[in-house]
Amino acid sequence: MNLPSDNTFNFLPIGGTGEIGMNLNLYICAGQMLMVDCGLMFEDPDGKITVNDDQVIVPDISYAAEHRDRLAGIVI
Fold first, then answer.
1. Rounded-to-integer distance, Cα 15 and Cα 43, Å
2. Which of 5, 15, 34, 45 could connect to 27 by a Cys-Cys bridge, CB 3.0–4.6 Å?
3. pLDDT tens per residue, range 1-28
């Protein structure tokens, strides 16, 4: 999917939108992207939140990485 180059405003929820943890949203306008709320989540197999390093869950940022030349900023 190519980035729109016109002035339309697009919202692309990458992960965890509306949830606790793993949030990542892209706002796209005029061919530029703003990445907002770069979260992650720690979870064990039972669904309980934990802090084990091997259970870190992060959103798939491949779309943003493919278009990194258009990334205007990151708001954490």
1. 15
2. 34
3. 666 667 889 898 887 776 677 788 899 9
Could you give the CA distance from residue 46 to residue 49 in angstroms, rounded to a whole number? Answer: 9
Task: For residues 54 and 18, give the distance between their C-alpha atoms in angstroms, rounded to a whole number.
Answer: 24
Q: And the tokens for 55? A: 């259970």
Strands (E), the chain: 9-15, 24-29, 32-36, 41-42, 56-57, 71-75
64 neighbors 71 (Cβ within 8 angstroms)? yes
pLDDT tens track for 48-64: 655 555 667 778 888 88
